[in-house]
Amino acid sequence: MIGWNEIYNVVVAMAPLYVALILGYGSVRWWRVFSKDQCDAVNRLVCYFTLPLFTFHFTARVDPFHMNYLFIGGDAVSRLAVVVVLVFWAKLSSKGSYAWSITSFSLSTMTNSLVVGVPLLKAMYGKLGVDLVVQVSVVQSIVWLTLLLFVLEFRRSGSIEVIDSHTLPGDGETLKDLEGNELISETRPPFWSLMKTVWIKLAMNPNSYACVIGVAWAFVAAR
After folding, report:
1. Is the CB of residue 58 less than 8 Å from the CB of residue 114?
2. What region, left, alpha or beta, does residue 172 occupy, with left being phi > 0 and alpha being psi -120 to 50 degrees?
3. What is the pTM of this model?
4. Cβ neighbours of residue 169 under 8 Å, at least 6 residues apart?
5. At what angle are helices 113-125 and 4-29 packed, to 10 degrees?
6. I need a labelling partner for 36 at 20 to 30 A (CA). Which of 123, 180, 201, 223 fits?
7. Which residues have C-beta within 8 Å of that of residue 110, sequence separation ≥ 6?
8. Is the pLDDT score of 32 beyond 70?
9. What sections of the protein cross the membrane (predicted)?
10. Buried-state track 85-106, b at ≥16 Cβ within 10 A, e below 16
């Protein structure tokens, strides 16, 4: 049974985070303390330095030889279950679409678990909770983020406008309507071209290489 002491620990752990979020939002939205250029500078500082160093700090402390594979497998099953539900929603519902399915999957599963999960689970379960959050975050950064970027690139650059499914020629050919106007059919880029784009974007993402360097550091430290 959850007691008042556990609730107090959770509130104490989460209060600094939400106070900082409210102050940041209010300083821009209500009090006009920061200008747009200053907000962009703060966002760049967080994106390129703060979050990557934060990610490296936790990732480098994980023990890759003693990971909880049962917990990681449960996390994978839950994400796959979300994928199945969203696919059925996109196919069977009149309001469903694959674009919204990708967005819904990103919002429901690709969470910033290090920022929120670490203080929360540390207050609830101690070091064990922190270790589990870090392990899931490592797998998310390396596996699930790559798959998400691939799907986004596939949707963006692989869309084909089907004008007449009965007279549609091969990829890259030019169509003409009844008045002789040319209608261009977009070509679907090859698989390796999509993967190249995905890897380039991953290489440009500071959190990605911070996670990879942190894992490499962890392997060396725990060898």
Report:
1. yes
2. left
3. 0.75
4. 175, 185
5. 160
6. 201
7. 140, 144, 145, 148
8. yes
9. 6-25, 45-62, 68-90, 97-120, 132-152
10. ebeebbeeeeebeeeebbebbe
